[in-house]
Amino acid sequence: MQWASVAKSLEGTINMIYRVLAMAGGALALAACSSTSDWANLDAFKSGPTLDTVSLESEPPGAEAKASNGQTCRTPCALALPVDAASSVTFTLNGYQPETERLEVIQTAGDPPRLRPNPVVVELTPGSAPVAKKPAKKPAAKKPAARPAAAAVPAPAPMTAAPAQAPSPWPTNPPPARQ
């Protein structure tokens, strides 16, 4: 008789577990139906482009490194670049000529594709700074219409002193010669 009551109580517990699982499953299904359909988009399972981290260095340091995909950093630095195609990195620094380094994709059996060279090290050549874009010229202001001769105003007297100029940030005298 004792085993029968244990079995009956165990059967009630199992039925309760099934009920709880059924309710949780129903709630999950209802939540999935009420949310956006993004879960049905299988693009989430596609892998993104494979990336390779490329170290970038320049001599002198502090150059702006700009990859062909638009990423930038100041050397020394590193960029995660896609390895789906060859790319390039251009180094610019004021007072130096820009340098561009091409990166090629290397594929070896059993390894993911990589970019070469890595690290990229460039020595910038002193020279002209990159040409800055000149601001567009402003259109000339319109001159006021000429007044009738009867209302002519006498011309101002010519200035005898030179107009004051702002002090220059550069020294006006050359530095003394060293011996």
Protein model, in words:
With 179 residues, the chain is an alpha+beta fold. The protein contains 1 helix and 8 strands; from the N terminus they run H-E-E-E-E-E-E-E-E. The strands form 2 sheets. Strands 3-2-5-6-7 form a 5-stranded antiparallel sheet, with no helix packed on it. The protein has a 3-stranded mixed sheet with strand order 4-1-8, with no helix packed on it. The chain is elongated and about 115 Å long. The model has no long low-confidence stretch (mean pLDDT 75).
Tally the helices. Answer: 1
The N- and C-terminal alpha carbons lie at a distance of: 119 Å
- Determine the fraction of residues in helical runs and give it as a percent range: 10-25%
Strand content: 15-25%
CA-based shape:
elongated
Order of helices and strands: HEEEEEEEE
- Class per helix and strand makeup: alpha+beta
- Describe the strand arrangement of the main beta sheet, using strand numbers: 3-2-5-6-7
Uncertain spans, ≥5 residues at pLDDT below 50? none
Task: Output the radius of gyration.
Answer: 38 Å
Largest sheet: 5 strands, antiparallel
Number of strands: 8
Mean residue pLDDT: 75
